[in-house]
Design brief:
The chain has 4 helices and 5 strands, in the order E-E-H-E-H-E-H-E-H. It is of the alpha/beta class and about 110 residues long. Helix 1 runs parallel beside helix 2.
């Protein structure tokens, strides 16, 4: 299964719904392009919803870090929600869990934006 991305707006937050496997190549590139594109258009509050993601690899983590960095430079925020145990474990193993603001559910994540 390849990656599927859908963006929607909830108040002043852009939610990026991700589904499928986010891996080296098309998947991680599409995620990175989406995050950079939204930041380039002036979006400063982005929530990535991983509820429908079955697997990510290190390239996906790299794209998320890049998106986080890009948004931080313009005083924006990137937050994550809907992480499976497998994705959480991968972020912990790679010592990247603390980089991101991670929430268990979308409503809580959206309320957490300042």
């Amino acid at each position: 299964m390849s990656i599927k991305l859908n963006t929607r707006q909830v108040g002043d937050v852009i939610v990026v719904d991700v589904a499928g496997r986010v891996t080296l190549g098309e998947g991680s590139s599409a995620l990175g392009d989406t995050l950079r594109g939204l930041a380039g258009k002036g979006s400063k509050k982005i929530l990535v919803n991983f509820a429908e993601v079955s697997y990510i690899d290190s390239s996906a983590i790299g794209e998320m870090i890049s998106g986080h960095s890009t948004l931080s430079k313009v005083s924006g925020q990137l937050k994550l929600t809907g992480l499976s145990k497998r994705v959480k474990d991968l972020l912990l193993i790679t010592k990247n869990y603390t980089i991101f603001d991670i929430h268990d559910d979308e409503a809580t994540a959206i309320r957490s934006f300042t």
